């Protein structure tokens, strides 16, 4: 990375920013520190327009809502992986030449959507009134009739546990001029109408309420309940007709989907250009900016800046600068950047772990899944996706990574003799009564698990030694060779000595080498402490760290655990598929159980292999040297969501 500062006339600013966006090569810095400086603040001001940015943001939200609405009515089947469609600048400009018409359609879609919402509210209202009125459908009098000159009508509900005879007995003590009618009842309550003298209404109501009577009114309702329910049915029909009309008009607007997508991307780029200007400073006639760019992009940026007649300076970063990080790896290691980025970005003073984790990740994944048949499916599926879909970013990296992991799985599956478990011997034995099997090229972990366990420990030890080596490299790179010797070199002696002790004939030499390493750790582990007690405890703590390393090595036993899980489950699936024996029924059962079972086994164990391979990298490997203090390099470019604007030849 290099630092770049640019000074130019305001007249060329828009053109420069437009072409910088095309290059996507410069990450602009915030200018807050300069604006906080009195000398700078007296000369310049921020070149931003917050009101314009908010206006564009509002338009993006509005257009995106219109797109979401028509997407619900789009009958075109969505692809498995949604990718940006490629479009030339000329095509993009041609589409946006109809921007006013596109906006009209977007607003029309939103109007239709708003009306649909109103229809839904109206439907809910009618439905609620219908449900309220249905228990009264047998009531034959008009609902607006609540009283006459001498009589009053009380309508309401009472708990189902209350019998009409109980109410009658209560009312008999008050008056003989009443009549109780049960209109309907349900599980919880009865729906009643009570006719009484107008002058006795309050007494009757008070008596009824002692039994839980709840009076009901029918505001703004005219006619009988049956007449009102019929009217509601007509309203439902009208609502459905209107909804169908609105939805048909929205479906007709789906043909504008691609244009609205272009509109959203154009608005997004406009907003980004306005927002990025907050990182520019201006005077009345000039502007200035500074940021970072990769060394490989310097010629292109220099050419552009000179064409615009701007002054510029490219310099080496100063000590203490927070330098953004851009990972750059070979085509084989590059897909595994996704694993690194999921954890965090390395510091510019550290090292990119991607090329070192890539082979181990493939190795771990292949051992854990450990079936050549599954590996072939994963490799073929990944290859098909990469060929059919133009994936970008982390999605492309992950699929390409699974392609390599699939190849590793085929390799280790062949070594372990697992091809969809023991499918060959199962089919041969059940249907052909033959004893045929694919022999492992190395050994079968199901029958010799200890060999895989010891191999897992060996691989884990190598993995940790590489991590310690990277730690030493970072310390030396940052001018701390003594720390590299004390914190890494002595550990190499300890583990090297232990390795020699295992090798026949070198036990004594290994013992002295390990002892020398332990002594070095004991003497230097507390070197940062000031007191004698602190130095002693620091040294003892450093030596005790060997327990943590052995615990880390034990973590690699998960290679055996997951490898056995996928292999054993595969064999169980084959056994279940062969339970019906030979014949047509047996073949059908074998196919059904095999396809379903192996699909499930592949999915669940591929997920397990992915997660646990990441875990071994993040905890055991990264924990020895990797920090996430890095800041990702985020250039000012065209961040579109739906279209990829490309120039001819690119």
Gist?
This protein is of the alpha+beta class and 650 residues long.
Q: Strand share of the residues?
A: 5-15%
Largest sheet: 6 strands, antiparallel
How far is it from the N-terminal to the C-terminal residue, by CA? 24 Å
Alpha-beta classification: alpha+beta
Q: What's the mean pLDDT score? A: 92
Question: How many beta-strand segments?
Answer: 14
**Shape call:** extended
Helix content: 55-70%
Low-pLDDT segments, ≥5 res: none
Number of helices: 22
Q: What is the alpha-carbon Rg in Å?
A: 39 Å
What do you see in this structure?
It is a single chain. The protein has 650 residues and is an alpha+beta fold. Among the domains are: 65 residues, Alpha-Beta Plaits; 73 residues, Alpha-Beta Plaits (2-Layer Sandwich), CATH 3.30.70.100; 278 residues, no CATH class. It contains 22 helices and 14 strands. The strands form four sheets. Strands 1, 2, 3, 9, 10 and 11 form a six-stranded antiparallel β-sheet that branches. A four-stranded antiparallel β-sheet has the order 6-7-5-8, with helices on one face. A two-stranded parallel ribbon has the order 4-14. α4 crosses α6, α17 packs antiparallel against α18 and α17 packs antiparallel against α21. The mean pLDDT is 92.
